[in-house]
Design goal:
204 residues; Arc Repressor Mutant, subunit A; three-stranded mixed beta sheet; 3 strands; elongated; Homeodomain-like_sf; HTH tetR-type domain-containing protein; DNA binding; HTH_TetR
Amino acid sequence: MGKIDPRVIKTRKKLRQAFLDLLKTRSLSEMNIKDLTNQAAVTRGTFYLHYRDKDTFIETIMEEIIEDFYESVIEYVPYQGDDEKQIPRIVLDKVFAYIGNSPEFFVTLLNENDAEDYRVLFSERLYDYVLAHVNYGNSIPVRKMPKELVNNFVVYSLLGIANAWVNEGQIYANHYIAAMVSKMYRSELFIEVGLSDFFVSETI
């Protein structure tokens, strides 16, 4: 596979940043190509060289950011010292650092009706990591619990806390909110299904 032209990478980065900047004042449905190109300081022709239309652009960017988020916050550790069995876990300090850098995206993800498909994508990705985490050595697999209950609790509790944290001006430091949330997730339910060490904080 050939290398991507640096000019293409630069243009896409500018459009992605323009998208994030516009989320401060626009919903997904209100955003338009003129706003995006003006904010990014590129022409409409340049935009159409990279994306078919606004919907394709939004879909691409939303999916890219979700992918970037998980690449940033997931780490793999050996299961019971066995390097051949790597299990994922989420580092909450990195979660809140990422959210703090892109708060508008996560407020949109949680609150907008037009973001429903992306909430589903976010939630499905998280559930995949949950299953991978409990794949080894769990006598009560998380599959035995209703998927929608586990998914809704994990996704909406995490995003709900993040949403409140952003709306309150991020008054707590990343490491502090991460430590508090990590403690919240050490509940009887999480112990029972093998998730007590899925959400971790670097400070505890």
